[in-house]
Design a protein that fits this description.
Elements lengths: L2 H16 L4 H7 L2 H18 L6 H25 L1 H6 L7 H4 L4 H22 L2 H25 L3 H10 L1 H10 L4 H24 L1 H6 L5 H4 L2 H18 L2 H4 L5 H23 L5 H27 L1
Helix pairs in contact: 3-4, 3-10, 3-17, 4-7, 4-8, 4-10, 7-8, 8-9, 8-10, 9-11, 10-11, 11-14, 11-17, 14-16, 16-17
The protein binds protoporphyrin IX containing FE (HEM) and farnesyl diphosphate (FPP).
Length: 306
């Protein structure tokens, strides 16, 4: 076959695979910003697991494997939620709703990257990490998305475990076993998740009510949800002391995390006691900055003071 004919036929195969979808549609269903933050928490877990720098090849394989499987989980979530996504303002522009990406293509893509991710972890990291990541994928893509989300206002408290797993996954990738210190990092993300999500759920309450999604502000009201956010933020402040109290982290972490948790508490207090329509969204946005900085501080403390 001539070079031009080969180019034409490979372009034909590619366009048959892509259909109306562009790279951007595949990228969007992976929830890239969420996965970036999940990977930061996994990276910190991996670095805290070892003395000095983690072996570069092992770290790269772990990040690729965890990243692919988290992206796969996010793509399954887009697939399984496409009908409710079509009815909510926030999500109605998603690729499966617009018809840019077919359900079959999304399923194939999610399966391909999830299996690839599992293979990378199984071949180049270790089986414990591969299976723990697979459980997290099933926890988010199936148990949370298909069942919990639609069943109970405690959906994200229970479902939050999957999103909180990456620091443990990063840690086990380096050591091959579950260290109690890694569970402290999981506990931090786990306690952070309810205020993170409920702040957004207050802002989007009408959207969730419209599709009968039992999110806390819909089932128990906005005032009660604000109280829960405040209580979880206090709990998060206490949980964040544990890395210092158990000797895992040092004074830099104690100072940095106390400032961040003080600021989070201020947002939660303002949301509860000073009614202002923009406060819920401001609290949601701050939660993301909070978790990102908290893990950067954990890492800095580890390398400067360990
Ligand atoms: C069950 C647990 C969680 C729930 C229910 C939840 C829910 C949400 C929702 C509904 C959004 C808005 C997405 C949008 O605007 O389209 C969001 C955004 C976000 N979440 Fe979460 N989240 C959870 C856990 C996490 C975890 C564990 C992380 C990272 C460690 C995370 C990081 C983010 C980031 C970075 C964004 C902003 C995404 C963007 O701007 O595109 N979330 N979350
Ligand atoms: C392998 C592994 C670590 C898996 C975890 C993967 C993952 C993407 C966790 C993040 C949790 C999250 C964004 C929940 C929101 O879903 P939602 O359906 O409530 O939000 P939506 O309405 O914006 O889709």
């Amino acid at each position: 076959m001539s070079k031009t004919m080969t180019q034409v036929s490979s372009r034909g195969v590619l366009s048959a695979l892509m259909g109306d979808a562009g790279w951007r549609d595949y990228y969007q269903v992976t929830k890239p910003k969420v996965v970036m933050l999940l990977l930061l928490t996994a990276l910190v877990g991996a670095c805290l697991a070892v003395n000095g720098l983690p072996p570069a090849g092992l770290l790269l394989a772990a990040m690729i494997g965890i990243g692919l499987m988290s992206s796969g989980a996010a793509a399954y979530n887009h697939l399984l939620d496409r009908e409710i996504d079509a009815r909510m303002m926030r999500t109605r522009g998603r690729p499966l709703v617009r018809g840019q990406l077919t359900a079959m293509r999304c399923f194939s893509f999610a399966t391909l990257i999830s299996v690839l991710g599992f293979a990378v972890l199984a071949l180049w990291v270790n089986m414990l990490t591969a299976w723990l990541t697979a459980f997290s994928l099933v926890g988010y893509a199936l148990i949370y998305t298909l069942y919990l989300k639609r069943a109970t206002p405690q959906n994200i408290v229970i479902g939050g475990l999957a999103g909180a797993a990456p620091p443990l996954l990063g840690w086990t990738a380096m050591t091959g076993n579950v260290d109690p210190h890694s569970l402290l990092l999981v506990l931090i993300v786990f306690t952070w998740t309810p205020p993170h999500f409920w702040a957004l759920a207050i802002h989007r309450r009408d959207d969730y009510a419209k599709v009968n999604m039992p999110m806390l502000p819909v089932t128990h009201g906005v005032a009660f949800t604000k109280t829960c956010i405040l209580l979880y933020t206090v709990l998060l402040g206490l949980v964040c002391l544990l890395p210092y109290l158990t000797g895992m982290s040092h004074e830099l972490y104690l100072l940095g995390s106390s400032l961040l948790n003080g600021a989070f508490l201020y947002y939660a207090w303002r949301l509860k006691f000073k009614a202002n329509s923009g406060d819920a969204m401001a609290t949601f946005k701050f939660s993301i900055v909070h978790l990102m900085l908290l893990f950067i501080i954990l890492l800095t403390d580890h390398y400067l003071l360990a």
